[in-house]
Amino acid sequence: MSEHMPLGDSDTGGRQALALTVGCRFALNSVVPASAIMQVAPALEPGIGISAERWDTTSDHHSYVDHYGNRCERFELGSGDSQITYEAQLVIAHPADLIDSNAREILVAELPDEVLSFIMPSRFCLPDELGHEAWQRFGDLPPGWARVQAIVDYVHRELEFMPGASNPWTTAADAYRARQGVCRDFAHLAITFCRALNIPARYVFGYIPAIGVPPPPEPMDFAAWFEAYLDGRWHTFDARNNTPRIGRVVVGRGRDAIDVALITSFGPLSLNGFEVRAERTDASTAV
Length: 287
Description:
Elements: E1 18-30, E2 34-38, E3 48-56, E4 60-65, E5 71-77, E6 80-92, H1 127-138, H2 145-158, E7 160-161, H3 172-178, E8 180-181, H4 183-196, E9 201-207, E10 223-230, E11 233-237, E12 249-254, E13 263-266, E14 270-280
Parallel strand pairs: 7-8
Antiparallel strand pairs: 1-6, 1-14, 2-5, 2-13, 3-6, 4-5, 9-10, 9-12, 10-11
């Protein structure tokens, strides 16, 4: 991301704790009873304090945590129409994206075992297919934060954001050839280039409120970005927006979107209505 911080909302400025309300509403229909898994609840991690959360639905459901540590909600839906609403009030202690331009790449031989899967190919991220392009475009750049940022700049510049341009089967290679996509395609392509250069990268999705930036022309939706492993920790990068943001709320992390699907259904399920909410609420207090 570029080094400047977002303009506006200087009373927050990313330096004070930030109180948010986040949530979503789904209108669903199934011709027969169906099972579904949803991932919409904020991740439980340091610096995030969830003061209240609720599900509003008549469908049976229960929560569990998957092997990536993501909070999931498992539903049993009856035939016909179903309404599901989720809402949470939370406080983020340090809401601004952090920039560490001195962060170094780590040699593969020195990577922790648990991050090795994030340099491997996955369902939508194909470093073996785009490896030649990655090394030609970015291989001669100084390793570290600047090289990851160069990848982000390239993807942000070369892909056109176009709702409906991709589908649930679109891979990073497909988006690269089409030169268009939605936020998940931006993330997938940047992740693919990073992995091709042996930089561990993982997919992230969640809520991003419009704080310090102009309101987007389209209705609010969930957002996708990614994290790269540099200097022994994970760092946030956003190829879709390519500017630091205030108030990111992580819902899930995984190898790509297949691991953190918004809805995974078992049986025919139609989405007839959908709303996302992420906005600042009352005055912030530290976590």
